[in-house]
Design a protein that fits this description.
The protein has 76 residues and is an alpha+beta fold. It has a single domain, classed as Trna Endonuclease, Chain: A, domain 1 (3-Layer(aba) Sandwich). It contains one helix and three strands; from the N terminus they run αβββ. A three-stranded antiparallel β-sheet has the order 1-2-3, with helices on one face. Strand 1 and strand 2 form a beta hairpin. The termini are far apart.
Length: 76
């Protein structure tokens, strides 16, 4: 079955959320929007606030998920 990019992304975010929760993270917000853009998952782990960018790909034909993160998505 073929999924749209949006469906694939949504599935990836659900899987990431479940993974984080199993690791003891408390998910505070998903798809948080602000003037600078969107953060896929905002979570808390112990005393740390964690911002998560989820990259979901169905193949590595066009590179790895890490390679698809642009400068604007990387902390500076």
């Amino acid at each position: 079955m073929t999924h749209s990019r949006r469906e694939t992304g949504r599935l990836g975010e659900e899987l990431a959320r479940g993974f984080l929760e199993k690791q003891g993270y408390c998910v505070l917000e998903t798809n948080y929007r602000c003037p600078e853009g969107e953060i896929d998952i905002v979570a808390q782990h112990q005393n740390c606030l964690v911002f998560v960018e989820v990259r979901t790909k169905t193949s590595q034909e066009f590179g790895s998920p890490e390679e698809s993160i642009t400068k604007t998505k990387k902390p500076g």
